[in-house]
Design brief:
The protein has helices spanning about 30-40, 75-95, and strands at about 5-15, 15-25, 50-60, 60-70. The mean pLDDT is about 90. The protein has one domain (about 5-95). A four-stranded antiparallel β-sheet has the order 2-1-3-4. The longest helix is centred in the C-terminal third of the chain and has 24 residues, at about 75-95. By secondary structure, the protein is of the alpha+beta class.
Length: about 100
């Protein structure tokens, strides 16, 4: 089974963190890491960090967190735009092969 990569979006609530979205990136490790490294945010977590973005890898169908950042609402908006643009680019390149 292939390793799959995805980005998981979560937010802090009074009950803890809740996942509210994810972007499937495919099985290209370099592309997944490259995209995540472009995202805006901080690797330093504080109590005030309520929006988290995690790079996840599915290994034998089990989720493994690779990297995490926290971000502001404005950074999240810019990150979602970047992720959508990059997924669009990668999927169109796949179709050209």
């Amino acid at each position: 089974m292939e390793t799959q990569f995805y980005i998981l979006l979560s937010l802090k609530t009074t009950q803890g963190f809740v996942n509210y979205g994810q972007y499937f990136l495919g099985n290209d490790r370099d592309a997944a890491y490259g995209l995540f490294d472009q995202l805006k945010g901080s690797r330093q977590f504080t109590d005030r960090a309520v929006l988290h973005i995690d790079l996840m890898e599915s290994v034998k169908e089990l989720p493994v967190k690779i990297k995490s950042i926290c971000c502001t609402l404005d950074e999240l908006g810019a990150n979602c735009k970047l992720i959508a643009r990059e997924i669009f680019r990668l999927k169109n390149l796949e179709e050209m092969d």
